[in-house]
Amino acid sequence: MKRSEINAAIRDFDALIARHGFAMPDFAAWTAEDHAASPERSRWLAERQIGWDVTDFGHGDFAARGLALFCIRNGLDGPEERPYAEKLLMVGVDQETPYHAHKHKLEDIIVRGGGTLCVEFTDEGSVEPDEGPLFDHAMIDGARVPAFQVHRLEPGQSITIPRGLQHRFWGEGAPVFVAEVSQRNDDRTDNFFLEGVGRFSEIEEDEAPWRLLWNEGSA
């Protein structure tokens, strides 16, 4: 991705968050200079993968296949670390996050506002979960539903994504403001894509970064 595309995505996401009245932590507005001025805290955040994250999954067309995220909290292994994570996501209209599965992470995807979030599962490419059996169903706010169909979630609804099951999602109607709560998250090791795509994008530096991505901090 071009850095200008990443900057534009973060600005759009920042505006979407503001429209929905969600108050962000102070480090969401940090510039590269702020990270350099607070190296210990910047390193702490980066080690836990906390902060901005924009990817086109190596596809080269962010509007068609891409995702913008902000990780608010996350932990590492260890008795004093948080065993949970929280993220915000911006999902564009017809913007696909491709099929992927997680071995460790059990997650709830929650539609906080905007358009409709479409979530689809497939029985191809499942991975063996680290904990528990592989399920063939999902839960939408306490209601058990067959996994292998398209689920359309309106603002206020949430779906629990089973471990090990390949899933993809996209937006309809308007950009979707999404939250994710889960067990602690490691995006470097716990994403198993059905296709040969990448989790992180190579960046073409055509302008200065407006906000650093979490993997560009001081870790």
From TrEMBL:
Q: Which Pfam families match?
A: Lyx_isomer (PF07385)
Q: Is Isomerase found in the keyword set?
A: yes
UniProt GO molecular function = D-lyxose ketol-isomerase activity; metal ion binding
Q: Which domain of life is it from?
A: Bacteria
Broadest EC class? isomerase
Provide the alphabetized UniProt keywords: Carbohydrate metabolism, Isomerase, Manganese, Metal-binding
Q: Does the keyword Nucleus apply?
A: no
Cofactor names from the entry are:
Mn(2+)
Q: What is its EC number?
A: 5.3.1.15
The family this protein is said to belong to: Belongs to the D-lyxose ketol-isomerase family.
The protein's name: D-lyxose ketol-isomerase
